[in-house]
Amino acid sequence: MGNGAIATIWGFTIADFTALLMVIFTFVTTVANLLLWVSTRRTVTLLLGQVRHQIASSYSEAQHYAVDAHRDIFFGLLNNPTLLESFTQANELDAKAWELQKISSFLVNQVMVGYLNFQNGIVKSSHFEGFKRDAQDVFRYKTVRSHWEKVRVAHSKEFRHFVETELLWRDTQA
């Protein structure tokens, strides 16, 4: 090769090889970044799903604890006849009617906790069908239906819709 000659290999100059290498490295880097982006997006989506599930689980657990606390207070009153008599007299309540109202309240709240667990993804739909059949039986009790009519507005629109369209038994032979 002469002084001013440019070195070539297979008809490509060093500048051509350098440019080709830059194109290849840029392509590889771009593909690697796209793969990293897809992987990161999947990981973030998975983490968000886990966080949502944890929040839903915590909410369902809190509802369960509230129902348990109310039940413990009720049974504490029932198991202390003197306190029960004082409570019902002070509030001008019929003790037996009050007991039935509280039992009905606990049954409605228990159904609500089961519904929340399903809505929050804690309970799978295959297990929920059995729960729903049991809940339908609960809402067949006159005291539960009567209590529901009094407290339905205190529950969420979604829970009311669930109870009234899927649980309440309608007598079709009128």
Structure description:
The protein is an all-alpha fold and 174 residues long. It contains six helices and two strands. Strands 1-2 form a two-stranded antiparallel sheet. Strand 1 and strand 2 (12-13) form a beta hairpin. The radius of gyration is 34 Å and the shape is rod-shaped. The termini are far apart. The model has no long low-confidence stretch (mean pLDDT 85).
Question: Based on CA inertia axes, which overall geometry fits?
Answer: rod-shaped
User: Regions with pLDDT < 50 over 5+ consecutive residues?
Assistant: none
Compute the number of helices.
6
Task: Please give the alpha-carbon distance between the first and last residues.
Answer: 108 Å
What is the count of β-strands? 2
- Give the proportion of residues in helices: over 70%
> What order do the strands of the largest sheet run in, or round the barrel if closed?
1-2
Largest sheet properties: 2 strands, antiparallel
Structural class: mainly alpha
The SSE string, one letter per element, is EEHHHHHH
Mean pLDDT: 85
- Rg estimate, integer Å: 34 Å
Q: How much strand? A: under 5%
SSE blueprint:
Blueprint: E1 8-9, E2 12-13, H1 14-78, H2 81-90, H3 95-119, H4 125-138, H5 142-151, H6 157-167
Antiparallel strand pairs: 1-2
